[in-house]
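Predict the structure of CHASE3 domain-containing protein.
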Amino acid sequence: MFRQLGLGAKMMLGSSAPLLLVVLLGVMCLINIKSLLETSARVDFSHRIMGSAKDIDKIISDLESGERGFLIAGKDEFLNPYTNGNKNLQNKINSSIKLVEDNPQQVSRLQKIGKLIEQWNKQAAQPEIAERRQVAVTIKNDQYTKDRLAAGIGKEKLEEVAIALEGLDIDFLNSENMAGTNLVMAITTDIENLKSGMRGFLITGKDEFLVKYQQAKDAFYRHEKFVHQIIDATFDRQESVEFFEEMQNYLTQWQDEFANPLIELRGSLSHGDSEFNEIIEKINSNESFKILDEIEFFIEDLLDAFDTDKSEWASRTTLAAGRCIDQMENSLRGYLITGNDKFLDIFEKQKEKFESKIFDLSDFIDNAFIVEDTAYSIDQVRTIITKWIKEDAEPEIQKRMAANKNRSDMSDVTALIEAGTGNRIMDSVRNTLADFIMDENMRMTQRQDQASQSAQLAQQMIVLGTIACIFISILISFFLTRAITGPIKEIFQGLKKFSQNEFGEVQNQFGEITTHLSQSSDALNKASIEISEGANLQASSLEETSSSMEQISSMARMNNDNATEADSLMNKVDDLMKKPMMPCGH
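Done. Here is the predicted structure for CHASE3 domain-containing protein.
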């Protein structure tokens, strides 16, 4: 096949064939490398998707950890991961959707994750965070309540009331007014119940303490009203003093006008100086009864006043004073009838006792409370307690009632967590994300396998291509070498048959031919020059002739060149023939 080709074509083929094979091998390598790069790019793309999925998982973990930290500590700085996570999550989901937009199933999973996270925020995270914030508010309110209770709510007002009640108690004790004293004690108890009911409600928030507070409040105003009734019913101090003075005057008058004269008269009767009828007439005198009746009237008036005043001691003392008058009258009668001096002793003792009772009553009235001052004191107590209720107790109770409406503690937060709403949603999120990652893992595994296969194929093709190139190059070189060396061997074998003379004759013949060709060329050149000169003279009219002659001149020059080349070739052949002949095997 190669014998028909020329030597140059054979040499060109021998040089270019390996290059063509190398180029072909390079093209095949490029194709495989391109495929390998594409597969590697898909693997890298899968890694990007997996990285994005891991970022989503990390953000979700930040959401949960941030919320959990806030639920435990109640401090806003723990919410930073939660807040930032919500800001970044949707952006990350959107960017991930762009990465897998050619896969509708993966896009659907990412969209589902976004909706589930939004659902988790609305149904779990936000309610739990709000409840924990309310717990913080509750703790703050409780601390405020403790501080207020420790400082004393309306402490100054209550201290002022305590002083006023102490004064009222002393006034009623000095006045021997047990009803007033009991009412002061009741009012003191009412105020303590007001305080304890308020404190109990503020501390516990239970309505039972509020009921106690309201009952104490009603009892206070009721008892305060009773105190006013006692004060309003108090006897006239000045009038009572005048009664005592009148009673003392009447008693003195009765003694001077009747008792003492009768005692003297009875003494004279014992000595026979007077008649008994005179004594009887004196005893039955209306004037004596009138004086004693006046004293009885005063005693009855005092008893009425003391009964209205609820002054039991004063009533008992007044009754005792009345009995003293009766005993004085009876002992006087006994002495007048019997003349026995023991009745005079009784008379004197009852007289002294009466005077003592009157003195005690006078002292009682002197020590009794001043109506105006006592009324002012109880009014002051009412005013201060009313002010304390409106300015101190009621506002704190209203705050506590408002706090009760939104009151929360950690058990409420725990209840929300234990409901499991957030866990169920997050489990669904993680399952969906796990499906997303598993799908991408499968894709990445496939792409990695493809990349590995492409790499192996490229290696195999490079090795096989290299071997094929070497083998084909060797074959081409072998056949080309035979195609080139075969004719040369034939030439050398043919040359051996020629003798030295034959080469000389050939050389002479070639020399003659060359000489003749050279002479012909010179003649043609000379003719061409002459014709050219003639043609130049007639150039304007013989352009076609000039052109033809130029062509002939050109052909002549070419013939001259060919002759020269042939002469040179013959010289080379002559030199070749003069060299010693080499063995044919070489």
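The mean pLDDT is 75.
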